[in-house]
Amino acid sequence: MRHAYILAKSYRGSKGVNKAAELVIILRSAMAETVIKSAASNRREEVEAEAVRPPLKWAGGKRWQIPYLAEYWTREKHRRLVEPFCGGLAVTLGFLPRRALLNDINPHLINFYTWLKKGLAITEPMRNQRAWYYAQREKFNALLASDKAETAEAAALFYYLNRTGYNGLCRFNSSGLFNVPFGRYKTINYRDDFREFVPVFRDWQFTHGDFDRLSLQDDDFIYADPPYDVPFTQYAKGGFGWEDQQRAAEWLARHKGPVILSNQATPRILKLYKSLGFTLHCIDAPRRMSCTGDRTPAKEVLALRNPE
Q: If one looks up domain 130-193 in CATH, what number appears?
């Protein structure tokens, strides 16, 4: 505004005062408009960031848990968020942390996220057709067998297979080959441009491997969503059995910062986490997939430790 008054003083003559006042009003209005536009632009960026949805279909996704988890994360959002079983990223994209360490045992999932961070663009056609799907599945498995699993082509095929395959499943056989059958969708909204994820993923680190190899900081906020404690066809080569459930629980119990665990509320899961000093909250989970057609809510547990 100082420049406005300097310009105003340059006016001389009988109408100088009126012109000066008029100029100040004009400049003030212009500055106010700039501020308003800037604020609107910032808010638009925030809204767009809030609207970033998980790019994959993911069986057992936890987006529905966000209202339950928000009260804990809101007061802890200065921390780094760690997901040792990041899956479809529903919770992380719901929180939108500034910093995150996101891990999964599935290397193909992490390869996809790694390429999203670089601005993945898919140029090959994607078709909701049975023959095309199985041809692309064969091509993807050929890449895995030829040490090309970390390429952009493999990431693009992983996305297509995920969107087109049955119920968003991610399943591999004992040889490590993708074996999900063709889905049953009438229409599929594919996307080929993922540039919106570049700024979102900028300060997020993606790793793949066993959870207990993660390099944690004492003040990390951990949200852990391991495979359910139920019979489950292999999500990754090697599976995730009861010994892994126990190992994960003990690993989480050793962490000094806040921890939230999500799992099926089976009797032995409840007993395990209660014995390790976790506070348990049982909630109704929407049942989206069932071989019997049963859609009644399933009981799920949130096990908390070290909340502030």
A: 1.10.1020.10
Task: Report the alpha-carbon distance of residue 164 to residue 166 in Å, rounded.
Answer: 7
Q: What is the pLDDT of residue 297?
A: 67
Q: How confident is the model at residue 19 (pLDDT cuts 50, 70, 90)?
A: low
The 10s digit of each residue's pLDDT in 45-85 is: 443 445 589 999 998 889 999 999 999 999 999 999 999 99
CA–CA–CA angle 280, 286, 290 (5° rounding): 115
The CATH number of 63-120+194-305 is 3.40.50.150
**Domain positions in the chain:** 2-50, 63-120+194-305, 130-193
pTM for the full model? 0.79
